[in-house]
């Protein structure tokens, strides 16, 4: 008698929500940030889909979510015990954790007095600016009509992180701690092609003339 073995194959469907696919980080130090300012990211004035800001730090518990230029303008979902809250990275808090601006702190902590607490945090795929994406912006206060110098960045890219950018094939470099790439040399006209590269291998290409010119910075509190 020959016995038959039946192989049972189980397929698992993984459904990813609008949040990042990585698990949330727990027990991250959070503090209250009381300033009213544009922040280190110098995000452009725009119609934002959320108004709860955070200054992001670089302590070890933040792991892959530590502050970098590429984190500027990204949305994080935090939970400090009063339900999940989406916050936008607008500033750096080097040496610290999640420095929640007053509006974000009050909602996330249930109006706790200024101090410290622990929160979970996860990268969200939510876009912060109305109108879809990706969207290229000139850096506010930059020289937008200087054919020998351009400074642009990209926002509304979901959970992707920008890793580099070229203008007419020439690589740019991040400007300080801001999310904008600086390009020098030229002359570079409005028909110059900007190509942004992302950590998932994808790219977004546009022309300089399509990058939004907004001189004012968004103020956060």
Automatic annotation (TrEMBL):
Signal peptide start and end residues: 1-20
Keywords: Signal
Domain of life: Eukaryota
Name assigned to this protein: Secreted protein
Organism: Hypsibius exemplaris
């Amino acid at each position: 008698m020959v016995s038959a073995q039946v192989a049972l194959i189980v397929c698992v469907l993984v459904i990813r929500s609008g949040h990042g696919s990585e698990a949330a980080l727990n027990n991250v130090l959070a503090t209250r940030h009381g300033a009213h300012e544009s922040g280190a990211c110098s995000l452009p004035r725009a119609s934002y889909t959320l108004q709860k800001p955070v200054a992001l730090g670089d302590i070890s518990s933040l792991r892959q979510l530590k502050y970098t230029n590429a984190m500027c303008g990204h949305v994080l979902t935090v939970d400090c015990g009063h339900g999940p809250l989406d916050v936008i990275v607008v500033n750096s808090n080097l040496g610290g954790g999640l420095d929640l601006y007053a509006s974000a702190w009050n909602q996330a902590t249930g109006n706790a007095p200024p101090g410290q607490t622990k929160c979970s945090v996860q990268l969200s795929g939510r876009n912060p600016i109305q109108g879809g994406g990706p969207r290229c912006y000139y850096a506010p206060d930059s020289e937008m009509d200087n054919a020998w110098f351009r400074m642009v960045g990209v926002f509304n890219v979901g959970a992707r992180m920008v890793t580099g950018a070229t203008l007419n094939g020439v690589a740019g470099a991040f400007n300080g701690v801001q999310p904008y790439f600086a390009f020098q040399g030229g002359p570079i006209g409005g028909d110059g092609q900007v190509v942004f590269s992302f950590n998932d291998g994808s790219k977004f290409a546009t022309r300089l003339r399509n990058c939004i010119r907004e001189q004012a910075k968004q103020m956060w509190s």
